[in-house]
Structures are given as structure tokens and as C-alpha cells.
């Protein structure tokens, strides 16, 4: 996928009338939805439960950006994939940029859920829990690289749409809470978790980016990357723990 910034992708400002000219379809709901069931759709995308049009359009857009460039995905494309009329999306989204912002927010929520699942079997306060967190972050980025790009394209802008900003901040707070608990348990509670976690975040984000754009440079499979993340994380915590002990000895 040719990753293009979300602000460039936002140039599609078609109105509902314009979209209607591009796609002529039936009613606002796919056939069979009145009974609460799911209907099939083009490309295998799921239909949606009656009244769940907003979620269906977000899922449809995520499916589409896996298949083609972000800037080539229109509101009409999402409507077609969700099997609704071209005007239906405007019940929930002001324009294309608003739809993409909700896609970014959904991405952050999916990332948080992936991290929750990865860490659930590791006790709170353990370094192993932070390792699982980092591995899940890297693997989410690799497995969802188009969505990952949309998420961080939205998050890095100061004037990011509120829905994307709130979801991104919530995801970040969850990570910082994990770091705070582990740092306290490892005798590092006196340090700022934001500053402490930044190098480890840079590492896992870097791994994810390299595995997306230059996988051959790493010459590593997923298990090898996990080991590298684990070794680096343990060494990082150990190094700070030793420094803390040394400072305590010097004060004594």
C-alpha cells in the first residue's frame, strides 16, 4: 500500500448528492437486515445488524484499505461494500475525513484489545507483561499495517479529529498504566513512566515499521523478533534497576 498522509487522503469531499450520482443502489439497509440477521456483501465483507450502520461502514472501510490505497477509498466505496445506498453514510459521518477519523479510532480500540489479550496471562507488575505488551504492539502493526498507518497519521496531527484523538489518548493511557505498575513493582516507581517507556515504545514501533516496509533487513521471523524485544526489554529494566541501586548506595 502506498501510505499517504490522512490530510492528503481527505481531499475527497464529495457531497451526498455527488455520491448518489456515482453509486445508485436500493434502500439504506441490506436485504435481510430487518430480521436482525446478517447478509452477505461484496468481497466477503459482513452485513450489519439492523441499526448498526455506523459500525458496518467503519468495518467496510477497514476492509477496503487492506485492498487499495487509502486515497482511493471513497465514502461511496464504503457504502457499496456495506451494501447500503450512497447517501446512507451521511447519517453518521459528516464527510470522508470524519469516516476516516472513526476508522482511526476503531484501530486504536482494536490495538488496546490486542494488548489486553496478550497481557492477560502475565501478572501485573512483571517485566514479562511489558514484553507481551510490546510484542502485541509490533504484531498488530504488521498484521494491520494499512490501519496502523491511518491511526498514526490521525494521531500525529495537533488538530486531529476528536474521536481519533480521544481513542489514541485512551490507548496510550492504558500502556502508561501498565508501565507504572511494573515500574513500581521493580523498584523504579520514582521515574516518570512517560520518559521511561519512550525508548521501549520507539523500539517496538521501529520493529513494526521495519517489518512492514523492509522485512528482509531484519532477517527474522516472528519468534525471533519476540526474542529481541524480550531481551532488550529485560536488559532495559535491569539496567535502570542497577542504576537505582547504585544511586541509593552513593547516597548512603
Plain-language structure description:
By secondary structure, the protein is an all-alpha fold. α3 packs across α5, α5 packs parallel to α8 and α9 packs antiparallel against α11. It is elongated. The termini are far apart.
Give the uncertain stretches in residue-range form.
Answer: 1-46
**Helices and strands, in N-to-C order?**
HHHHHHHHHHH
Give the fraction of residues assigned to helices: 55-70%
| Beta-strand residue fraction | under 5%
Silhouette = elongated
Task: Note the main sheet.
Answer: none
Number of strands: 0
State the distance separating the first and last CA atoms. Answer: 58 Å
Number of helices: 11
C-alpha-based Rg, rounded: 22 Å
Mean pLDDT: 81
Q: What structural class is derived from the secondary structure elements?
A: mainly alpha
Q: Can you describe this structure in just a few lines?
A:
The chain has helices at 6-9, 16-22, 53-65, 75-82, 96-119, 127-143, 145-155, 162-185, 193-213, 215-218, 222-251. It is mainly α and 252 residues long.
List its traits.
mainly alpha; 11 helices; disordered N terminus
Annotate the secondary structure layout.
Layout: H1 6-9, H2 16-22, H3 53-65, H4 75-82, H5 96-119, H6 127-143, H7 145-155, H8 162-185, H9 193-213, H10 215-218, H11 222-251
Helix pairs in contact: 3-4, 3-5, 5-6, 5-7, 5-8, 6-7, 6-8, 6-9, 6-11, 8-9, 9-11
Amino acid at each position: 500500500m502506498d501510505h499517504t498522509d490522512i490530510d492528503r487522503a481527505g481531499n475527497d469531499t464529495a457531497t451526498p448528492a455527488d455520491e448518489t450520482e456515482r453509486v445508485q443502489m436500493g434502500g439504506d439497509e441490506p436485504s435481510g437486515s430487518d430480521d436482525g440477521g446478517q447478509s452477505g456483501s461484496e468481497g466477503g465483507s459482513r452485513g450489519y445488524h439492523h441499526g448498526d450502520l455506523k459500525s458496518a461502514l467503519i468495518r467496510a472501510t477497514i476492509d477496503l484499505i487492506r485492498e487499495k490505497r487509502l486515497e482511493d477509498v471513497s465514502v461511496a466505496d464504503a457504502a457499496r461494500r456495506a451494501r447500503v445506498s450512497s447517501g446512507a453514510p451521511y447519517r453518521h459521518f459528516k464527510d470522508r475525513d470524519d469516516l476516516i477519523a472513526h476508522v482511526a479510532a476503531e484501530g486504536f480500540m482494536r490495538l488496546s484489545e490486542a494488548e489486553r489479550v496478550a497481557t492477560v496471562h502475565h501478572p501485573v507488575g512483571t517485566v514479562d507483561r511489558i514484553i507481551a505488551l510490546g510484542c502485541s504492539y509490533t504484531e498488530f502493526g504488521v498484521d494491520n499495517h494499512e490501519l496502523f498507518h491511518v491511526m498514526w497519521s490521525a494521531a500525529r496531527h495537533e488538530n486531529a479529529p476528536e474521536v481519533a484523538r480521544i481513542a489514541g489518548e485512551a490507548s496510550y493511557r492504558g500502556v502508561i498504566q501498565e508501565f507504572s505498575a511494573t515500574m513500581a513493582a521493580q523498584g523504579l516507581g520514582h521515574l516518570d513512566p512517560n520518559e521511561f517507556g519512550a525508548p521501549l515504545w520507539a523500539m517496538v514501533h521501529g520493529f513494526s515499521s521495519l517489518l512492514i516496509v523492509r522485512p528482509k533487513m531484519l532477517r527474522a521471523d516472528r519468534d525471533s523478533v519476540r526474542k529481541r524485544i524480550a531481551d532488550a526489554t529485560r536488559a532495559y529494566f535491569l539496567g535502570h534497576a542497577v542504576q537505582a541501586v547504585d544511586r541509593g548506595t552513593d547516597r548512603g
